[in-house]
Amino acid sequence: MKVGVIGVQGAVNEHIEATKKAMERLNISGEVFWLKKAEQLKNIDALIIPGGESTTISRLMIKNNLLDKVKDLGESGLPIMGTCAGLILLAKQIEGAVRDQRFLELLDVRVSRNAYGRQVDSFEALLKLTFDAEPFLGVFIRAPRIIEIFGKANPIAYYKDEVVGVEQGNIVGLAFHPELTDDTRLHEYFLKNAF
Ligand code: GLN
User: Fold this and answer.
1) In testing the pocket of ligand 1, which one of 49, 114, 122, 147 has its CB within 8 Å of the most ligand atoms?
2) 88 Cβ inside 6 Å of ligand 1
3) How many domains does the chain have?
4) How many CB atoms lie within 10 A of CB 89?
5) Which atom number of ligand 1 is nearest to the Cα of residue 51?
6) Selected catalytic residue, list 14, 15, 84, 167
7) Could you confirm whether 95 is annotated as catalytic?
8) Active-site residue flag, 177
């Protein structure tokens, strides 16, 4: 299995390590690599878009000729997981985005950038997963808030009664950073679905 992590900006290495660990735990062999150029999209089985700064990631993806290609691949079924800024890239509606900035628009959610307020703009909290009884420690860093779900997106993670993670067919979007803990359950969940 070949998994690319979009590596133009943001928490790339952490995702590579977490994905490798998740593959080991699932007994899947393959490679996980830093994806910077459009040629590297060939033959990948899954793609991760990390956290970072969504405007910068979008601009660099356009510059590297990745944005339209990734959008096409996502529309034709390539499994893609986006975390934090990656979720913003995937969302169909974004509040607080820079005007005219382009995104992937693959996920039926409305997100609001940096919407957790100043005091708690970064925090950790135990989350409830829909597919596992054990709570998951969510690390939120200037995270986007999912303010609406419509169409075909389904919740997979909750903070209190608020949705912080969704899936829609081949796409997974998380407001938090699962790569910053040792808990690989969300990476495993994504890989299992991708397989
Ligand atoms: N605040 C960032 C943005 O709007 C996302 C933060 C993150 O990915 N940790 O792009």
Assistant:
1) 114
2) yes
3) 1
4) 29
5) 8
6) 84
7) no
8) yes
Q: Which of 14, 15, 167, 177 is catalytic?
A: 177
- Residue type at position 191: L
Q: What is the pLDDT of residues 120-174, one digit of tens each?
A: 889 999 999 999 999 999 999 999 999 999 999 999 999 999 999 999 999 999 9
Q: In the chain, which residue ranges form alpha helices assigned H by DSSP?
A: 12-26, 54-63, 67-75, 85-90, 185-194
Total-model pTM: 0.97
* Domain interval for residue 80: 2-193
User: Among all chains, which residue has been given the structure tokens 């990476």?
Assistant: 187
CA dist., res. 111 & res. 52, Å (int)? 16
- Reduce the DSSP state of residue 76 to 3 states and report it: coil
pLDDT tens digits, residue range 30-61? 999 999 999 999 999 999 999 999 999 999 99
73 phi/psi in degrees, rounded to 5: -65, -40
Contact present, 19 and 32 (Cβ < 8 Å): yes
CATH label of the domain that carries residue 159: 3.40.50.880
**In the annotation, is 15 catalytic?**
no
Closest listed residue to residue 84, CA positions, set 123, 153, 141, 33: 141
Q: Are 73 and 171 in contact (CB under 8 A)?
A: no
